[in-house]
Amino acid sequence: KLVSREFKAEDTLVKAGAVTVGGDRIAIIAGPCAVESRDQAMTIAREVKKYGAVLFRGGAYKPRSSPYSFQGLEEEGLKILAQVREETGLGVVTEMTSPAQAELMEKYVDVVQIGARNMQNFELLKCAGKMSKPVVLKRGLAATIQEWLMSAEYIAAGGNTNIILCERGIRTFEPYTRNTLDLSAIPVLKKLTHLPIVIDPSHATGIREKVAPMARAAVAAGADALMIEVHSDPDKALSDGPQSLYPEQFGNLTRDIYVIAPVV
Ligand code: PEP
Ligand code: MN
């Protein structure tokens, strides 16, 4: 398999915007769940940049459980992301939910995300495999590591080996957290694959106060990157407010991360 350690022993370094994910330094990705407006995105981008983020995240196409929930600003959201890059210099990461969006993604963003709900959307994976952008592949809500790696293989088989695996928590019987963060996936993956690993403690826990301890643990366990949801006014967020850190909390977290490991 193209993504296996047997095929390639050295760690893959993924160029994402101006930064490298993988290698000796931790890359910090941060931003709101969704791009809600130009002002909202720009405000949060400036804050997270100030506190050490090197990539900005924000959804323009949101895979919501309810069709009545905010679905994202779509192309307008992608344009805002491009403006964020222009004004802050941060590379931008956003989710692609359909192959129909691929052209716009190529035009406006630096990194394409495949969401947990689409981890086995094979047509979407094949499409990502043909793209020129690096891909963050999130683990499915109830996917095994082997299934997840086979999904990465779909992308690699299409010719795109710039893949970052994202553990974002899995479904278990435990209701105290939104999902259960599988931290053991880090050492397991490090053995099986050369691809870099990003941990998303925001979706994994669903609870603001649980994000920082899990982020610190992820870095201690060998994660290559973190993806953290941050919002300047979480109470008014159109999605995932309860798990979004206030900018100052994000600043406290990055300061702690600097103590644990070198950061990009
Ligand atoms: C997200 O990153 O905003 C998201 C929807 O994540 P997931 O696909 O992991 O639920
Ligand atoms: Mn979210």
TrEMBL record:
This is 3-deoxy-7-phosphoheptulonate synthase. Keywords: Transferase. It comes from Desulfobacter hydrogenophilus. Transmembrane segments: none annotated. One of its GO terms (biological process) is L-phenylalanine biosynthetic process. GO terms for molecular function: 3-deoxy-7-phosphoheptulonate synthase activity; aldehyde-lyase activity; prephenate dehydratase activity. The keyword Repeat does not apply.
